[in-house]
Amino acid sequence: MFRIMRVKDPLRDHDMKMKICPECKKYTLKDLCPLCNARTVNPHPPKFSLEDKYGKYRRLIKKERELL
């Protein structure tokens, strides 16, 4: 009989997500940009939902900052 062995996939098992540096616009997987040492951010938009839980707060912030 053969036994199935599960091999760990390092990319799937770790929380590695693409990030972008707001200063130099370079993509990386690290929390700090390797070029300019700025903190990186998530470049992906939030998931779309018809039930926008935080829309009210987002509109208030935009109104305060005069972006609307």
From TrEMBL:
Taxonomy, superkingdom: Archaea
GO cellular component terms attached to this protein's record: ribonucleoprotein complex
InterPro entries reported in the protein's UniProt record: H/ACA_rnp_Nop10 (IPR007264), H/ACA_rnp_Nop10_sf (IPR036756), Nop10_arc-typ (IPR023532)
GO terms (BP aspect): pseudouridine synthesis; rRNA processing
MF-aspect GO terms: snoRNA binding
Purpose of the protein: Involved in ribosome biogenesis; more specifically in 18S rRNA pseudouridylation and in cleavage of pre-rRNA.
Entry similarity comment: Belongs to the NOP10 family.
Protein name as it appears in the record: Ribosome biogenesis protein Nop10
Organism: Candidatus Methanofastidiosum methylothiophilum
